[in-house]
Amino acid sequence: MLRLRTMCGGLKLLGIRRTSTAPAASPNVRRLEYKPIKKVMVANRGEIAIRVFRACTELGIRTVAVYSEQDTGQMHRQKADEAYLIGRGLAPVQAYLHIPDIIKVAKENNVDAVHPGYGFLSERADFAQACQDAGVRFIGPSPEVVRKMGDKVEARAIAIAAGVPVVPGTNAPVTSLHEAQEFSNTYGFPIIFKAAYGGGGRGMRVVHSYEELEENYTRAYSEALAAFGNGALFVEKFIERPRHIEVQILGDQYGNILHLYERDCSIQRRHQKVVEIAPAAHLDPLLRTRLTSDSVKLAKQVGYENAGTVEFLVDKHGKHFFIEVNSRLQVEHTVTEEITDVDLVHAQIHVTEGRSLPDLGLRQENIRINGCAIQCRVTTEDPARSFQPDTGRIEVFRSGEGMGIRLDNASAFQGAVISPHYDSLLVKVIAHGKDHLTAATKMSRALAEFRVRGVKTNIPFLQNVLNNQQFLGGTVDTQFIDENPELFQLRPAQNRAQKLLYYLGHVMVNGPTTPIPVKADPSPTDPIVPVVPIGPPPAGFRDILLREGPEGFARAVRNHQGLLLMDTTFRDAHQSLLATRVRTHDLKKISPYVAHNFNKLFSIENWGGATFDVAMRFLYECPWRRLQELRELIPNIPFQMLLRGANAVGYTNYPDNVVFKFCEVAKENGMDVFRVFDSLNYLPNLLLGMEAVGSAGGVVEAAISYTGDVADPSRTKYSLQYYMDLAEELVRAGTHILCIKESRCRGPTLERGSGPRS
């Protein structure tokens, strides 16, 4: 049975190999075998990975994700049909740069083609070559073209050979500060350093005078080395106040190359694009023709295949200068898609399969500009603090939507954790309208609808850009942000709902902070800690535990004549009265006195239960440090804790090995008696906790929770016999001590030794 798929060129049979050819008029007609792609892996993460996955799903192609150890919970992993860990043990970014792991995943899982996305390995010729060597298709240009375009010096030489104007600059990377000084002597200032083996604004420094030369050379070299593994720089004459215009190109394997018009990326901060527009506003038609024809000419010069971008600077006189070629999909490809109605990712995949552009219905005469599109990059950066990246959990997320709005995102949802390890992009917002002003109005409305709480974003800054009259007039250049300081006059978010919810939660947990309606004055004196004798505290029950172990300790409890007391002051008492808010600092003050004067206590309950939650969330203390410090001050009295069975000290079931390890570490840090408790007397839950405590060498105190009149014969389910049977089960399971816990209040509990362990 044959599968049919609808494409731009009509219905194509995918179950049969066929031959695709370039148009008869093409001077370089080649006959290539059409090989459909059935499985695509994206060697990337986040938004661009999801963008490619969606395109593949639309084409009926199975998808594969890769993820680092830090990205285990990221959305791109969930969106793919298959997902595999790469870079185990490596730093977060290095995981996505580890070519052997990526190639191994591709080969082991029968991947037909790899899409590199943007960033990471997208412009690495060695990665494209590694894919080719492994028999996996690379969705992008050939390795040789990637290499040529990635080397800015060689790309510059190719542009010159193609007759494309370039900015005056060095023909090869400079190897010393002296060479940079010689260039500045010849061409004068300002000049700009650029990384020879990467882009994105990294390794890029503008120098206006001799005094700035050495410092900026050093910084640019360091940035390039850190970002691309190679600190090589080349030097160009810096064009002042230019527009940054780039042209989208698309080529196939038959020599067909076309352009999809231009984008204006002039709104930049530190050479990082902030807002992108297509087409460029108020661009002279003749200049547009020169830009697009030079882009196609340059692409043909190098034999370019697949999607790419040719970048130019346009000076105030309308002269254009070639900067570089990005041999990959750009972050801002979305605005081109909106105005041309061409899905660039679909086109990339089809070209890699062996389809020609005419096969796809893509001819230059058919590409038309339809309206205007604007893209804003919403990032988790705080513009009030020099765009410092913010991290944390998104508490509230509501996006702007509606007609003419497109959202490309990955981590934009309530509960998402924003990691410090990767790019701060949260969501790309794309607005499409009939003209520049209409698109700007839609974008402004969409940004106003966003509600993001929990992390800072650059939305207030973007709103100022969208409302700026110079921007609305379409007359911006690369100095726009630097020359408009009012863009940083940010309107603070009101955040009324979150503030109200926070207040209500605070009152519910901590109680009201309003003055009490009585005239009583607070105590004018601080509590006085009694004098503690010099020397070690007297022996206590813990000495028996250390000497004779848990069984000997339980035997000593049974043989003791009289009542033994467990003191709950250090935990359960102030949990009931003060929501467990007594600090370690205060507990430590009274601990030496307790050790010297209460050595006959059965135990001190000072840990477990809500201690962990409150110590970390409200007191900002380490609960482990509390245990260690109290143990040092009270060496003679057994410590006791509440263990919620398989829940340990949390509020959900944990894996068995987590509970076992927790008990082991608790015992090592000074815990002695573990009261294992389950409010429903669920035996499997209790048994897991008991086994974990016993394995750690602690004293097992199994608790029975009861309520009601157990002597009432009319109670047939939770009768006295039920509790007697449960007690027998716990004794048979090996508890050292049996605890009977009345569940209606936080009153005292009766604790007795249960006899020798069976």
From TrEMBL:
Q: Where, per UniProt, does this protein localize?
A: Mitochondrion matrix
Q: Which domain of life is it from?
A: Eukaryota
Annotated GO CC locations: mitochondrial matrix
Instruction: Please list the residue ranges annotated as the ATP-grasp domain.
Output: 156-353
Q: Name one GO molecular function term.
A: pyruvate carboxylase activity
The alphabetized UniProt keywords are: ATP-binding, Biotin, Ligase, Nucleotide-binding, Pyruvate
Give GO terms for biological process.
gluconeogenesis
According to the entry, every stretch annotated as the Pyruvate carboxyltransferase domain falls at 563-758
InterPro entries recorded: Aldolase_TIM (IPR013785), ATP-grasp (IPR011761), BC-like_N (IPR005481), Biotin_carboxylation_dom (IPR011764), Biotin_COase_C (IPR005482), CPAse_ATP-bd (IPR005479), PCB-like (IPR055268), PreATP-grasp_dom_sf (IPR016185)
Report the PROSITE patterns cross-referenced here: ATP_GRASP, BC, PYR_CT
- SMART domains reported in the protein's UniProt record: Biotin_carb_C
Establish whether keyword Ligase is in the entry.
yes
Q: Does the keyword Translocase apply?
A: no
Domain Biotin carboxylation span(s) in chain numbering:
36-486
- Which Gene3D superfamilies does the UniProt record give? Aldolase class I, ATP-grasp fold, B domain, pyruvate carboxylase f1077a mutant domain
The name this protein carries in UniProt is Pyruvate carboxylase
* The species this protein was found in: Pipistrellus kuhlii
